[in-house]
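Chapter review: from sequence to fold.
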Amino acid sequence: MTALNKTIRLFLDGIGRRDEYEFYLNKFQADPSACFALLCPDIGSIEAGAEVLAFDLHFLLRLELVPAILLCGEQAPAMKAALAVEPIFDFHHLDKALVGDFILNARNLERVPVLVAEELSLEEALLELLPVTAKRVHFVRAGGGLKSEDGTLRPYVYTHKENFKPLEPLEFDFPALAGTLLDQRPGVHVSVTSPMNLLQEIFTVKGAGTLFRRGSRIDHFQTLEQVDRERLLKLLESSFSKPLKNTDFLKNVSDSYLEKNYRGAVLLENHPAGCYLSKFAVGREARGEGVALELWQEVCRNHEALFWRSHIENPFNAWYHKHADGHHAVGRWQIFWRGVSAEAISSIIAYCCDREEDFA
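The token string follows.
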């Protein structure tokens, strides 16, 4: 990873957690693509935030990450003119055969390459450039991420699992284009955010926009006979960043929910008050992609009453608070429940406190 001076590290510390931004920085710098991301702004985001965009992109260059901006369609000349007031941008007409040279030349000049293709639609240009030029696409719009019915941010849109129709008027059908890209260029990352939140969207697990995904296949097993135990245990130790003391807890598992590629898992045990959530694990590469939410939705669809414990320092506790009916702190544990009857709460708290730790 690039050595980070004190000023850069302080700035990144203001964006998110150190372990998160270091993880993403390592990941982006290891990518052999011509640039680490393609940014597709709309005219509103440029007019409202060209200066902010220029500042953030200059910061990315200091991290040795080269973004490229893509301007397409009939608004491309107007967007180019609005960006041209900032000297950091280097403009080129989009020529697929010469894109790599354009980006390298701009990098040597410490400028941000801007690819202009007014004769192409955004879809046509992106299908030409992905995945060789970049594997990440960030749509940048003045309104930021897409909103739900009550006006709150939708952190994920699963293009192949739901009929998502945002109630806010959209100047462009981002879900449809994202679905096309995910279909025809598997493995690409597609999201939408605002100019103000671009760095937070890039360097944090939580993000600051809307991430588009096809959606994962979640398998539900009521026996572990069909589960690859070696892959499951590897996922658990990787997710919790510590080794298991033993695997005796597997004997009590009544239901398991596994993402098809073992990037996430939930293990449940039967209990008179409902189901005890023994393990909730998401692999590091899958964090921030909505796998945890997909697993959770499948579990809640089939199990009305759940309870679980989490270490008081677990950064995931904020997420648990949002999805639990109640919680109680005892020593080093936070105990959460959902759908559990009031008369059973004292017993589930005692049950959680009495359980031994499974990890070393």
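Two observations follow directly from the output. The chain has a mean pLDDT of 90. Residues 1 and 26 are 6 Å apart (CA to CA).
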